[in-house]
Each structure stands twice: as structure tokens, then as C-alpha cells.
Predict the 3D structure of the following.
Amino acid sequence: MSRCLCLLFALTLPGLPFPALAQTNPPLVPLPREFHAAAGLPLASGIRIDCEQPCDAEDAFAVADLKSTLAARGIAITEALSAPHIFTTRSNTQMGKTIYQESVPAGSPATIPAAMHAEGYSIVPDKDGIALSADTAAGVFYALQTARQLITGDGASAILHMATIRDWPAMPIRGLHDDLSRGPIDTLEFQKKIIRTIAAYKVNLYSPYFESTQQYASNPLAGVPGASMSAADARELVAYAAQYHVTIVPEQEAFGHLRHMLIWEKYQSMAETPHGAVLAPGEPGSIDLIDGMFKDLAALYPGPYLHIGGDETIDLGVGRTRADVDARGLAAVYLDFLEKIVTDLSPLHRKILFWGDIAQDAPELLKALPQSFKEQTIAVAWGYSPNPRGFEKQIRPFTDAGLQVWVSPSINNYRQIWPNQQQALDDIQEFTRDGQQFGATGQLNTLWDDDGESLANMNWYGILFGAAAAWQPGTSSIPAFQQSYAQVFHGDASGLLNQAQNELTAAMSLLHDNKLGTNSEGTDGLFWLDPWSRDGQTMAARMRPFLTPLRLHAERAIELIQQARLANPNLREADAIEAMDFGARRIDFLGLKFQVCDEMATGYARAQSTALSPASRKIHPGVSSLLSDINGVNGRLQDLTYGYSQLRDMYEQQWLRSYRPANLRPILEHFDYTIDTWQARIDKVRGAQHQWSDSHTLPPASDLGIPAPPPGSQIAIQ
């Protein structure tokens, strides 16, 4: 071993300054702060991964985790001293100090900067592999995650790309907020997958969101069995996450968004409005309810933070507190109750997080809050759309008042048949950049499931860019991420999956930029909308100019995904690739639905016009043929019933890959109801076909639910 370690530092690197990073080769997510490429080593004979002895238990876990990950890629793990190696140690050892010195660019201080201590690391190459060092277990873990990405290819064709890297995060807190309360509820195993995955991209905090989906000893009415996390789930998840240096931060709404809790009769005296969503400040029992739940949470989740929510308290001042709000103002009543909650939870000795959307509009009241409140809390400023003017107004009210603040962008997945990724990337980039500029200490990237239909495996693109933006300093490059994502996440060196992602992004941008599906129902609403309904006819007129390009983007994505699979049958994260394919098919079907509904309206009008002609039997296509195009072996009505049916089955499969069965049925029922609607129209058109056969007459289109054909349709007899 000593002979090999002497060789470790044989390579002397040129003392050149590190260039500003836009992209690396191989691509890395996040981008390291400093990177200088060296040669590559083939791993046909396998790779040796060692930890300097005595190896800390946490470092040993990180080494074992990397070995497992590489073995799953078909890369042989060997103990042979002649094999290429990855060697890790702590920077306080003699070898660690040497590694750090080799990583320092010319002109930089020789001592490790304070910013590197908590999670930073160094990597240097030699002729046999790479060596890593870090001050802490988290730093060692992140160094090994970068080393994992430095290995491209699988099996005997894998290559270790050597490099000199010195890296540390721009933001101490890099988190993911996971909605477990709007329908989908992750299985425990999928939550573990989330932990493993976000940790691999240097995210260090995971925040499950509860309205009434955590089971509490103090509140048996919360947490329906089968549709909530149990205490045992929580403990297991915390222990699992600790291995990956991820802190679990539970968010239990303690003010607004509590309708699932306040629907219980026991709590009516505490509700702002009957069976409403807001807990009324000052009502007897309100603080006791909060106190009990958060004591339970503190026992289950021993990390340094608890999140009390407090966003969108829309009903505040409408019911029980109306007189108080009228007298003192909404912000004063809101902050007064927030202060009472924080005071009550003080004995738990946790930092209390709260959403900043209400308080940010009262900067003077924020400044007047007691110092004890400011020391105990962290405001989480949120904004889920890009803002050309920046996000200073969401951040500065808190920093100016002396409060710590995190920024919270969104992956823009809620109410969308596929995440609106251009909106998400711009929002994450801008908000995280401004957070760093104006003193935010953390980023909490969010996913939401507002209408209960979002699918978890569609979310990785936005999650990984959030991880990159929070780790990297300044403005993260969206093009660099878009070019790197598929090779890093899926092992796709062809670039085909990156192109497929771009096609899906273009399709969703087409809808968003033209304000289609931007209402409260999003593009999910477009998917369910009946084009023959009154609202559907209004939307159809707006959709028509964009249906062809929309479908072509989606279909190109399907083709690219299939080409990528054929080029490399061993692509990683297969469930996420399946989700991409499903998203593309759902977008394509959305466009098809509006097209064929127009075609059926036109076709029936032509059939009616043809039926009135004395020579109708000699006209081609005749009435029977036109009706068969609507309802027949290859009829357009069948296109819709088969399409919804196929997507229903695919949706169910997607759901069960990540979520508990609870709350799936309403969505499947929506599919079934929609299929039944079109089946009923099949029966009506079949009746019209029988009428034509019997009497050579046709009923009015309105009797069949068919609207007038779109303007400009060719319905005259040819």
C-alpha cells in the first residue's frame, strides 16, 4: 500500500489558474467550483476503492455506497493493487494535507479556506487514479459522488476521467420540499430513493410536507392509515437519511392549509370559518393542537429545524378574527399568532421555519418583532415563476429585519401533464442567484401536487437543476445543465435524451407562452377538457394554431427516447425514462383530442350536407363512410376511447412505482368517467348510423352532442 501511495502524487500539474466554469468534460452536476481535466483511465480490469485506515465509519459507508453504485453499472470492484483506484482520506492526515496542496491553484492561499470545512473536498489525479480528501464525513461523501460522475460508461467500457478539483457549496442549506398532502403520498421506499438521489447531487435537506398525512400520538384524527406516514416510517427515514448526510425537516401546516384537519367536528371551534382551511388565532385549543403535533414531530425528527408553514392564510379575517383584523390589520394579527406559535415551541430548541408570503408585505412590523423571535426563526421566501425584476422584494424584508432567510423556487410540476421546465429552470436560476446575492443561507426547492395528479418520476430534471443552482455560486448555466443532464443522470452519452427533454420543454412552453392551460387547472385541465363542451369550444379556438407543433414536439420526444434506448439498453433511471415517454404521449394525445373533435364536427356536417343531396348514394365519400370515420373500426371516437384507456393503464403503473395506492382511485375514476362519456357518444352516433340505414335521415348534430364545425371547414359536397 505504501508503495502505491507514494505513486499517488507523482503527477505534477501545471500551475495555471482555473478557468471560469460553464461546462466540464465529463459533464458534472453540480459543476465544481474549480476544475482542471487530466487524462482518463480505462476500467476494463475494474477499479479499487480504498479509504485510509483507520477509516471513519461514515467514510466507510460512503465508500461502500460508491462500490455498490458502480457494481450496479457492471463495473468490477477489485482489490488488485495494479487496478486503477479511488483513494479517500481526511484532510487532517499527512496524506490529506498533501492532496489539498496538490489541488490548490497558483496564487491561492495554502491553507484550507473556512468555506470548505463543512462540506468541501479536494480531488487530485495520479497515473493510477484519483485521491480525495475532505475535512468532514459530508465532504468525503460529496467527493465520492463527484468521483462517481467522473466515471463514464458501464462495465468493461467504463473510463475514469481524472481531474484536479477543489469544491465547496455556495449555500449551506440545499433542500427539497416534497408535497405529501395533495393526493400522492410517497412510499417509504421511494422516499429512500429520493434521499439517495438528492444526496448524490449534494442536496443535504429533505422536507416532507404534511397537512394531515403524518400520524400523531397527540392527534389520532390526523393521518388516515394507508394514506399517511406512521411514526415508524418517520424514524426509519431519519436513520436512513443520516447515512447520506441529509437532514429531514418535517413541515406541518400550523396556520393555513389545514382543511383536512379542520374538517373534523372536534376542531370546529378553532377554525376561522366552518370546515375552512385556516386555524383561528386566539381561539381556545389552537395553540394546544399545534403544541401536541410539534412535540410529536420533534420526537420523530431530531434535526435542528421544524417547519410550521403559515402560507396563504387566505381566510384570515373572514370569520372569527374579522373584528381583530379590521381593528389591527391582517399582518399584525398574522405575525402576532406566528409569534405565539414560536414562543410555545421554544422549549423544543429548534429553528422554526415559516413561509414568507404574508409577512414580507409588512417590513416595519418584521423589524419590530422581538429579538428572540428573530433568533429562533428562518423565513422561507417563495416564488414559483421567473421574475425579470428579480426576487429582492421577497428576500430583503427579512434580511433587513435581521431574520435569516432561505429562498424557495419550484420545479413547476403542479397541475401539469409534464413539468413546465423552462419556467422551472428560469425560476430556480433567478431566485437562487438572488438568494445568494442578498444573503439567503439556504435554498428549498419545491414540488407540489396541487390537483393530486403529478407523477414523481417526472420531477428529476427540476430537482437536479435545483441541486446544481444551490451548490454553484452565482448564476447557474441553464444550457450547461441541459447538455449535461442525461449523461449524468441516465448514462446517455448520445445526447438523445437531452434532446427529448428539450422537445418536452418546447411543447410545454408552447402551451404556457400562449397562455393555454395557465389557469387554476393547468394543463391537467386541458387534458380532461371536453372539446365539445362550451368551455372546450372556447379553448379549441385558442388551441388550433398550436396543435400541430405541439404534437410534433411530443412525437419527436417519443422517437428520441426510443432511439436512446436502442443505442444503450443499459440506460440508468429507467422509471424516469418511462415517465418521459408517458409525458410525451399524454401531450401528444392532448393535441390529438382537439384535432379529431374538430374533424368529427366537420365530418358530421358533411354527412348532413351529403344526406340532403338527391344523388347522395353516388357521392364519395358517402354518408355511411363519413359516419364510419366518426364511429367505426378506425373511427375517431375510438381514437379517444382507446387513447384515454391506454393512458389510464400507463398512469396507474406510473403512480404505483412511487406512491402508495391511497388517492389513486379518484384519478382512475376520472379516466373511467371520461371514457364513459365518449362511449356514450359512440352509442349516439351508432344510433344515427342506424337511422341513416333505416330512413336515410340524420338527427341534428346537437342531439349527438356534436358542435358546429370550426370556421373555415370544408363541408360542401364535392
